[in-house]
Design goal:
heterodimer; A: alpha+beta; 60s Ribosomal Protein L30, Chain: A; B: 449 residues; mainly beta; Rossmann fold; Neuraminidase; 2 domains; seven-stranded mixed β-sheet; 31 strands; 42% strand; disordered N terminus
Chain lengths: 162, 449
C-alpha cells in the first residue's frame, strides 16, 4: 500500500509537471468562459477566506482530483497560514458535482480532499492537524444544473476544526 | 422506530387443489402491449363482519378495499388490465360461489378474482378464487387467516398468488422498499431512512433527519438494513435491525466506509473503505467480525454486489482511467472488466436470477439504466433521462426500481428526486409514489414465502 501510494504520488508529480508544461503552451487555445477555464471554476463567488488573502477552497475538473496551478497557489497560502497558526487544526471537505453516481462520488470526494491534504503536508503541515471528510455530491454550494454550477461544486474546502 | 414485518401470523391453506391447466397464461419475457383483461370482484363481506370491520379497522368494507389493493398491483405490473367494476353484472357473493361465465365473458374478462372476507374474534379470514373465464373453470382457491390490521398484506399476497399462477413466476407484491426520503433545498437536503410497502402505502421513517443517511440495503430476510450514516460527522456503514431499532457501526475502520450491501447468504457485509484518497473493497463477517480486504488497487473500487450464489462480486472501478464495471471471484481474484461500451458505467447490481447485471450508464450527458449479461455481452439500455441511477431488482428479477432527478434552473428551482420502476423488457416505466422526494431505493425479498 505504501509502495503503491508513493508510486502514485511520484506519478502525480510527473503528471502535474506535464500538465503545467502543457498548460503553458496551450494557454492561448484553452477556452475561457467567464468564470471557468476548461471546466475548472476560476471565479471567486463562493470562496470564503480562512484569513485575509487565504482562500478556503480549490476547484477540480470533472472526474479529476489533480490540483491546478491556482489550486496549488491557494493551498500554499493555506499552508503558510497553518504554519503561523499552529494551534488551528483543519478538516478538508471533498465534494463532487451532481453528475455522477452517488457512491463513486463519495470516493471521488475523498480523493479530492486527500489531494489537498497531501499538498498541505508537502508544505510542512503535520498530517495529524488535517482530517478529511467526503460529502460526495451531498452538499453542493450552488444548486443550479449547469456547467458553471457544477464547476463550483467540484471542490475541496478547508475549514477550521476547532 | 420499531416495525414488525415478520411476526405476522399467516395461515394459508388450499381450499381445493386445482391442477387442470388453463387456457390463459401470460408471457412475461417480452414487453406486454396487450395486458390480460381481468375482473377483480369486490370480496364479499357479510353484515356482521362489516360491523366488526368498522370497529377493528375503521373501514366499512375491507373486502372491497382488499380487492382495490389487488387491482392496483395487477395494473402497475403492466401485465393485467383490471376492468371497471361498474360493468360487473354479478354480485360478489354469488360470483364467488359460481360465476356465470357468460356474464364475465360479455365484458371481455379473461380471468376473474372473487372472494369472501369475515372478521370475527379479532381474526380476519379471507378466501379467494381465481377463475378462467374462457375455459369456464376455477384455477386456484386459497384462504388466509391473520390479524385484521394485515388486510393490505392479504391483498398483496393474493396479487402474488394470481401473478404466479398466470405467469409461472413468483410475484413481488408482498414486499417493501427501503429508501432515502429527501426534503429541503438542494444545498441543505435533509435525508431520512424510510420504509414503505411496494405500492407506496404504510410509510414509516426510521431516522429523524439529524444526520445525513444514504444507500440503505436490505439483508436477504429483509429484517436488517445496512446503510451509510454521517452520525457525528463520521461517514460509516451501519447495521440496523428494523424490528428492534438497534443500530451499530460495522467494523472499526479508521476512515470512511460506504457503498454497503449484504452477501446473498446474509453472513457478510461488503463495502468500500476509503483511506488516503484510495477506496478499496472489504467484507466483514457479521458473526465473527473478521474483516477481509478484497481489492488492493490505487484506483477507486466501489459499489460491490455479490452474485446470488456468493461466488462472484461485480463492482465499479476507475482503474482503466474511468468508471467501468468489473467482475471478480469473491476472494478478489480473477478481476475482469466487463463494460466496454461508450461512456461511464456505475452501480452494478447482480440480478437475483444470476444471469444479468443492472447498471447506471453516463454517456454524452445522459444517464441510462441498463442490463448486461455477467460477461458484459448483450448490453441493453432500458431508459434514458437527465439523471437517474442506482437500480435495485425486484425479488423475482423482473422489475428494476431506481431514482431519477430533474434538472434545476439557475436559481436551483425545479429540482426533484423520485423513485421509478421499469420492467426488464424496457416497458412499463412508472413513478413509484412516495410521501416525500426519494432516492436510493432497495427492494426487499418476498415477505411471505
Amino acid at each position: 500500500m505504501n509502495f503503491s501510494k508513493s508510486f502514485r504520488n511520484t506519478f502525480l508529480v510527473i503528471l502535474l509537471s506535464l500538465i503545467v508544461s502543457a498548460c503553458a503552451t496551450k494557454k492561448t487555445t484553452t477556452k475561457v468562459e467567464g468564470q471557468m477555464q476548461g471546466d475548472v471554476y476560476t471565479g471567486t463567488d463562493t470562496v470564503k477566506y480562512l484569513a485575509d488573502g487565504v482562500p478556503d477552497r480549490v476547484f477540480f475538473a470533472t472526474n479529476e482530483s489533480i490540483l491546478t496551478t491556482k489550486s496549488r497557489d491557494t493551498l500554499r497560502k493555506q499552508a503558510n497560514w497553518l504554519r503561523e497558526n499552529s494551534s488551528i487544526n483543519v478538516v478538508v471537505e471533498g465534494h463532487a458535482d451532481e453528475r455522477g453516481t452517488r457512491e463513486y462520488n463519495l470516493a471521488l470526494g475523498e480523493r479530492r480532499a486527500n489531494a489537498a491534504k497531501d499538498y498541505l503536508i508537502t508544505y510542512g503541515i503535520s498530517a495529524d492537524r488535517i482530517s478529511v471528510i467526503s460529502y460526495g455530491k451531498e452538499r453542493p454550494v450552488d444548486s443550479g444544473s449547469n456547467p458553471l454550477s457544477w464547476s463550483k461544486n467540484r471542490r475541496s474546502v478547508t475549514v477550521k476544526a476547532n | 422506530m420499531m416495525i414488525r414485518i415478520i411476526n405476522l401470523f399467516f395461515i394459508i391453506f388450499f381450499l381445493l387443489s386445482t391442477k387442470a391447466y388453463s387456457l390463459i397464461e401470460i408471457d412475461i419475457t417480452r414487453g406486454n402491449l396487450d395486458p390480460l383483461p381481468i375482473a377483480v370482484s369486490p370480496l364479499f363481506q357479510d353484515d356482521n363482519s362489516k360491523r366488526n370491520s368498522i370497529n377493528e379497522l375503521k373501514i366499512e368494507n375491507v373486502g372491497s378495499e382488499i380487492s382495490l389493493v389487488v387491482e392496483n398491483n395487477l395494473k402497475i405490473s403492466g401485465l393485467f388490465n383490471p376492468l371497471s367494476k361498474e360493468a360487473f353484472l354479478q354480485k360478489p357473493d354469488i360470483a364467488h360461489l359460481k360465476p356465470r361465465f357468460e356474464d364475465w365473458a360479455l365484458i371481455k374478462a379473461q380471468a376473474l378474482i372473487t372472494g369472501k372476507v369475515t372478521i370475527e374474534d379479532k381474526k380476519l379470514k379471507v378466501e379467494f378464487r381465481l377463475w378462467d373465464i374462457l375455459a369456464g373453470r376455477e384455477m386456484m382457491a386459497l384462504a388466509f387467516t391473520t390479524v385484521p390490521s394485515n388486510w393490505r398484506r392479504v391483498g398483496h399476497i393474493i396479487s402474488d398468488k394470481v401473478y404466479e399462477r398466470l405467469t409461472g413466476e413468483k410475484g413481488y407484491f408482498d414486499t417493501r422498499i427501503i429508501y432515502v426520503s429527501e426534503e429541503g433545498p438542494k444545498t441543505a437536503r435533509v435525508k431520512k431512512l424510510a420504509i414503505m410497502d411496494q405500492d407506496g402505502f404504510n410509510t414509516k421513517y426510521l431516522t429523524l433527519g439529524n444526520e445525513l443517511v444514504l444507500t440503505p440495503r436490505f439483508n436477504p430476510t429483509s429484517q436488517m438494513v445496512t446503510y451509510l450514516s454521517y452520525f457525528k460527522n463520521l461517514p460509516r456503514v451501519y447495521l440496523l435491525d428494523i424490528e428492534t431499532g438497534t443500530q451499530e457501526v460495522v467494523g472499526d475502520f479508521p476512515g470512511m466506509t460506504f457503498a454497503p450491501r449484504f452477501s446473498p447468504d446474509g453472513k457478510k457485509i461488503i463495502m468500500s473503505f476509503a483511506k488516503d484518497g484510495n477506496s478499496d473493497i472489504y467484507t466483514m463477517d457479521l458473526e465473527n467480525r473478521i474483516v477481509e480486504r478484497i481489492t488492493n488497487h490505487p484506483s477507486i473500487d466501489t459499489s460491490p454486489s455479490y452474485s446470488p450464489d456468493n461466488r462472484f462480486i461485480t463492482f465499479n472501478s476507475d482503474r482503466s482511467g474511468y468508471q467501468q464495471i468489473y467482475v471478480m471471484k469473491s476472494d478478489g481474484s480473477n478481476v475482469k472488466r466487463i463494460s466496454f461500451g461508450k461512456g461511464l458505467y456505475g452501480t452494478p447490481v447482480w440480478s437475483p436470477r444470476g444471469d444479468l447485471i443492472a447498471f447506471t450508464k453516463l454517456h454524452k450527458g445522459k444517464f441510462y439504466i441498463g442490463v448486461m449479461r455477467t460477461d458484459g455481452s448483450g448490453e441493453r439500455l432500458l431508459t434514458e433521462n437527465y439523471y437517474q441511477e442506482a437500480p435495485s431488482w425486484s425479488p423475482n428479477g423482473r422489475v428494476l426500481i431506481f431514482y431519477r432527478e430533474t434538472k434545476s434552473n439557475d436559481k436551483g428551482e425545479g429540482f426533484s428526486a423520485k423513485l421509478w420502476s421499469i420492467d426488464l423488457t424496457g416497458y412499463n416505466e412508472r413513478q413509484v409514489q412516495t410521501e416525500t422526494d426519494a432516492s436510493d431505493p432497495s427492494w426487499s425479498s418476498l415477505l411471505s414465502n
